[in-house]
Amino acid sequence: MGTFRIEGGHQLHGEITPQGAKNEALQILCAVLLSGEKITINNIPDIIDVNKLIALLEDLGVKIQKKGKGSYTFKANDVNLEYLQSDQFKQDGRGLRGSIMLVGPLLARFGKGYIPKPGGDKIGRRRLDTHFEGFIKLGAKFRYNKEEYFYGVEAEKLKGTYMLLDEASVTGTANIVMAAVLAEGTTTIYNAACEPYLQQLCKMLNRMGAKISGIGSNLLTIEGVDTLGGTEHTMLPDMIEIGSWVGLAAMTKSELTIKNVSWDDLGQIPNAFQKLGIKLERKGDDIYIPKHENGYEVQNYIDGSILTIADAPWPGLTPDLLSILLVVAIQAKGEVVIHQKMFESRLFFVDKLIDMGAKIILCDPHRATVIGHDFKSTLKATTMVSPDIRAGVSLLIAALSAKGTSTINNIEQIDRGYENIDERLRAIGANIVRV
User: Fold this and answer.
1) Is 145 annotated as belonging to a binding site?
2) Phi, psi values for residue 293, rounded to 5°
3) Percent of the chain beyond pLDDT 90?
4) pLDDT score of 96
5) Residue 355 — left, alpha, or beta (φ > 0 → left; ψ -120 to 50 → alpha)?
6) Degrees to nearest 5, angle at CA 283 with 397 and 9
7) Taking the CA atoms of the chain, what radius of gyration do you get in angstroms?
């Protein structure tokens, strides 16, 4: 189990470039199974979860060539479907949440898709019902082996239909879209997720020959086609990493420039930090954060009542950033309620922040009230364990702002979502060592 040792209290300075988007990569990489022609993908992040999925594709028989940093070609013209029933697949697929999105493309192109119950972060229940209910509505037969926790769907030919999703699941929508593009007839998906990464997937599929309309809305219409071709695709920067660097700059009173952020795809994210009083400027496609020498003050509602920041399906605020915003609020002037609606275990890391001296009241599994210090007292260093990707980076930000030397164990959780994070932080002046 790896460890970060962090000496806090240093101001950072310089430029940092966000990696390619992890959540987009997991969708886009699964989509290469929809075609036997060459597909080139750029700006792929070099992180554990993405590399696991690339290895899974290779084991499935996809021909993969690395062209350069973050750039690969994929050709799925000889897929080994027998691998899906192997013990190795049942083991490898279980370790990666994103492996569920292999099912839609496999079902669409080969008439069958299987997956072991995926793992991932321990942040609460994340159902797979939306995925499989969508496949069943397209005409697939579902089966589930309870002893092995092994799911399967099979169909001779999928047929387009109308469906109203029970939740605007991002991965569920992506999976159903990938199945529907090769279905016979027209599929209409209402209450579809519409976040930028899903828009990217739909645009890529259209370049491959799919016929998807309504992109960017919650009503998608998909006219099925017989085959898809090749294409080239460049992924967006990771919006969660961008938010992490904004929070880090504010907490450490640092002057930072975040490069090439794709401003137009950030949605509510800049606004959420501005509600906490953080100043950020748009400079071209970069975000510039000045030194907050005098701190930052929470903007209450216009009637003076306490601010609540909550997550919601896109175009609402992504739940992945709430833990970052919670940590940033620790040094704000004022109070704020952080309401994590979508996952019931994601706030359970706040006890570690309380140990560091934060004033946080965990109201219930979904809500925490933060009473800001206004930099009148600093967090104190401690030893912590990273419970999941986002909480791990939130604890890292807290440690970089704290007085003394902190230790974070189980950093493999952080490595699952952030590329060479220690090297990149050292480049802007952080004192962080990987042990």
Assistant:
1) no
2) -60, -30
3) 86
4) 79
5) alpha
6) 25
7) 22
Ligand-binding annotation for 66, yes or no, is: no
Q: Pick the last residue of a domain from 185, 206, 234.
A: 234
Q: Give me the torsion for CA of 315, 44, 340, 294, rounded to 10°.
A: -90
How many domains are there within the chain?
2
Kindly state whether residues 247 and 396 are assigned to the same domain: yes
Q: What mean pLDDT value characterizes the chain?
A: 94
Instruction: Find the domain containing 383 and state its range.
Output: 3-19+237-434
Say how many C-beta atoms besides its own lie within 10 A of residue 115's C-beta: 24
CATH at 60: 3.65.10.10
Q: Is the pTM of this model over 0.70?
A: yes
**Active-site option among 121, 238, 311, 415:** 121
Is 121 tagged catalytic? yes
Structure tokens at 6: 């962090």
Co-location of 151 and 291 in the same domain: no
Residue 118: asked if its preceding bond is cis (omega within 30°), the reply is no
Provide the CB-side half-sphere exposure for 70 (13 A, CA).
Answer: 17
Per-residue pLDDT tens digits for 250-295 = 999 999 999 999 999 999 999 999 999 999 999 999 999 999 999 9
Is 342 one of the annotated binding-site residues? yes
> Looking at the structure, do residues 307 and 350 belong to the same domain, yes or no?
yes
Whether 23 has a binding-site annotation, put simply, is: yes
Please give the Cα distance from 347 to 338 (Å, whole number).
9
- Of the candidates 283, 251, 257, 289, the residue with the CA atom closest to the CA atom of residue 14: 257
pLDDT score, position 116: 86
